[in-house]
Amino acid sequence: MKDISNILIIDDEVQIRRLLEISLTTYGFHTLFASTGKEGLVAAATHSPALIILDLGLPDIDGMKLLTSLREWYTKPVIILSVRNSEDDIIRALDGGANDYLTKPFRSGELIARIRAAIRLSQEKKDTPMMEFGTLVIDQLNHVVRKNGELVKLTSTEYSLLTLLARNSGRVLTHQFILKEIWGYGYLEQTQYLRVFIAQLRKKIEDNPSNPTLLITESGIGYRFGS
Asked: What is the Cα gyration radius of the chain?
């Protein structure tokens, strides 16, 4: 399926830019390029791209600092594409506002799929009273969750956790972000506490809790709500 969205690529590697241009234009995306952080900020402000692909190793500005600057005003998706592959770097980027993170070398097909998902989700209204994910329906107006048309009984904490993940469908949320949002700063290290609640939710909303398709674990990082 063709797409006409503008994608801004901020990366100083010529070969990567050429590869991305070929891959993205093949699927109908329009590509814009910047080889430095300063150029990237100007291009983002000038063209308002539907999504930004950002390398962390830029020659003039550290990619994390650039991400922070972008997130002061840019609300559309940002996907990090970097050789940095440590859990600390990934967690910092996701907590810093990135929607997704891929490491180099990467598979073009996977990148295209993640771009499409990020753009689609950014265009949906996450504050809509009714969220539907297959047979799972979350009625935020009445605080009611149904699976296959039947009421799912959730505790207030389980409901808050589910709606947080669902409103960010497709985005990786780190353990620390979820713990802070649901339980507060005093629980930032209680990842086992979070695992217990995720396991409880899976039993209630997944067709097969041992092979989840909604509450997906991102090993060592956090969770992604699949749609």
From this structure: 18
The answer to whether the beta carbons of residues 53 and 8 sit under 8 Å apart is: yes
Q: In b/e form, how buried is each residue of 143-181, taking b as 16+ CB within 10 angstroms?
A: eebeeeeeebebeeebbbbbbbbbbbbbbbbbbbbbbee
* The CATH fold of domain 6-123: Rossmann fold (3.40.50)
| Contact (Cβ atoms closer than 8 angstroms) between residue 37 and residue 66 | yes
pLDDT value, residue 124: 62
Quick: pLDDT tens for 32-54. 999 999 999 999 999 989 999 99
Distance from C-alpha of 150 to C-alpha of 135, rounded to nearest angstrom = 10
User: Token pair for residue 190?
Assistant: 């209680």
Give the domain ranges of the chain.
6-123, 130-225
